[in-house]
């Protein structure tokens, strides 16, 4: 099982995600002018999104007390 993120870590990831999203929404011209930077930001946003999704699934799995067969 993967180590769960702490609340400060989750909040930090959410803040970074929002910052990247703001850049993507407010600077669309960057896509044409600086495509490497644009794609780097998109890649970072996707990594953060995946990390938060993975953490959420780990939380769900850690609190699940039954199996698919219904056995505890």
What does the secondary structure layout of this molecule look like, with pairings?
Blueprint: H1 7-26, H2 30-33, H3 35-63
Q: Could you name the key traits of this structure?
A:
single chain; mainly alpha; 3 helices; 74% helix
Coarse structural class: mainly alpha
For the record, give the distance between the C-alpha atoms at the N and C termini, rounded to a whole number.
18 Å
* Overall 3D form: elongated
State the major sheet.
none
Helix content: over 70%
Number of strands: 0
Mean of all residue-level pLDDT scores: 89
Rg calculated over all Cα atoms: 17 Å
Number of helices: 3
Low-confidence region ranges: none
What is the string of SSEs from the N terminus onward? Answer: HHH
| Strand residue content | under 5%
Description:
The chain is mostly helical. The chain has 3 helices and no strands. It is elongated, with a radius of gyration of 17 Å.
Task: Provide a brief overview of the structure.
The chain is mainly alpha-helical. It has helices spanning 7-26, 30-33, 35-63.
